[in-house]
C-alpha cells in the first residue's frame, strides 16, 4: 500500500486526477504539460492543482526516446520489445520543487549514484577497466550514456569487458584502447592515440593498480608497483592535461586506498626519501610499496587540484572501500585468503558481474568455508566461557 501511495496510485479520487477532456503529456526533456482537446490548448500547470510537474530522472533501464516521421516523441522498451507514445516516467512525476541532495553511504552502488543522470555528452577514460572497480565504474558510466574508453593492458580481457557492457545495453558507447602503465612509451602512445580521435575528455579515472606483486623492474628501470600505481598515471595526466583543460569542466579521479596511512615517504631524519619510491630488491616489501604508491596518489591528486582547478579541472582522490573482492589480491595466496574471508562482510557483492577471473577458486572456497566456521565456533566458545565465569 505504501508503494502505491508513493507512486500516487492508491487514491483514484486524488486531486491530481485530470478533468474530462484533458490529457497529460511530456516534452522531450521530461517536463509535463497538459493538453485540452475541447479548447485545443496546452499549458504547463495542472488544470486542478495549478502545480507544475516534471518526470523524475532518466528513462527506466532499457528504454529509449525516439521521434516518428511527424515529429512526435515515442518510447521504445528494448527489453520487452514494444513501443508506446506514453512516457514511462509519467508514472513517477514529481512536483517542480528544489530536490534535497541524496545521501550516500557505504552500501551505495555506482549505478545508484548515477541514477537520473544523463551523461550522453561526456567522454570518460578509465584505466584498468577490464575488471573489479574499474569495470563497474565503466559499466555504470556507459549505461548512463557516456562514451567510455577502457584503457587496459590486455586486449582480450578488455574486449571481454566491452562485450559484457554491450550485452547489458547494445547502444552503449564503449571501446577498449591499449595502455600498459608499466611502460612510459605505452602511456605516451595511448595519449597520442586518444588525441588522434579528437574527442574531449571530461572524466579521467586513474584506477589501475597491482598489489603484493613480487619485485620487478619495468622497461623504464623503475620498481613496477610504483610505476603502475602512481608514476604511469602521473605521466598519463601530464600527457592529457591539455585535452582536460580544453574540455573543462573536467575532472580527474585518482583511486587511492586507506592503506596509504600505513607508510610514509620520509627517512629516519624526517626528510623525503625519494629512493623509497623505487627501492632495490633487497629493500622491497610489496605491501609497503603499494601503500607508498597510494600515498603518492593522494599527494599528486591534491597538488593537481591546486594547479588545475583555476582552469576548471578538478581532482579528487578516493578510497573505494576496504577489501572488496576484485582481482587485486591475486599475486599473493595470503592476500587471496584474507580477501576470501572478508568477502561476506564487505561491499564485494556489488562487484559480482565483473569479468576476468575474480571468482574464488575451489581451494580458496574450501579454506574460506572452514576459516569462517572456525571463527564462528571460537566466538561461540568465547561467549560460553565468559557467561559461565561471570
Ligand atoms: N579491492 C579493494 O578492496 C581496494 C581497496 C582499496 C583500494 N583499491 C583500489 O581500487 C583500484 C581498482 O582495484 P580493484 O580492486 O578493482 O583491482 P583489480 O580487479 O585487480 O583491477 C585492477 C586493474 O588494473 C589493471 N592493471 C594492472 N596492471 C596494469 C598495467 N600495467 N597497465 C594497465 N592496467 C593495469 C588490471 O588489468 P589486468 O586484468 O590486465 O591485470 C585490472 O584491470 C586500485 O587502484 C586499487 O588500489 C581497491
From TrEMBL:
* Key words of the record: Apoptosis, Cytoplasm, Golgi apparatus, Lysosome, Mitochondrion, NADP, Oxidoreductase, Phosphoprotein, Repeat, Wnt signaling pathway
The protein's organism comes out as: Megalops atlanticus
Q: Where is this region: Disordered?
A: 1-24
GO annotation (BP), single: regulation of signal transduction
Q: Cite the GO molecular-function annotations of the record.
A: enzyme binding; oxidoreductase activity
**Pfam families the record matches:** adh_short, WW
**Any Gene Ontology CC annotation:** Golgi apparatus
Protein family (similarity comment) = Belongs to the short-chain dehydrogenases/reductases (SDR) family.
Q: What's the name of the protein? A: WW domain-containing oxidoreductase
* First-listed, main subcellular location of the protein, grouped into a coarse class: cytoplasm
Q: Carries keyword Cytoplasm?
A: yes
Q: Which residues form the WW domain?
A: 16-49, 57-90
